[in-house]
Amino acid sequence: MVDSNKEFDDLERELRESLAPRAAPLGFANKVMARVELRDKSAFSLWRWFTSAALVTAVLLAMVLGGRWQQQRRQRIAGERARDQVILALRITGSTLQAVQQKVQQSAKESQP
Known about the structure:
Blueprint: H1 2-19, H2 28-111
């Protein structure tokens, strides 16, 4: 039983020594502050990178959408012009057919006895 008490006492002493407060090594605070500053800089740098990437993405998206809008506008204008030309051609054709029909009718009336 004496041996187990001695072992317990030794263990307790080692434990107390391990958990006893110790002074920080020289320069410890400076090292910690340098790491904190480096982390802050890298976090700021990462934020700046994300902001730049978002800005570039927005500009590219605006350019693509703007180009697409211009293309659709040009196509719409071309379609409207083509429609106007078809309508004009149909009016001319209709007028010509009416004139021809009148001549045919007049010619038919004149040829009747």
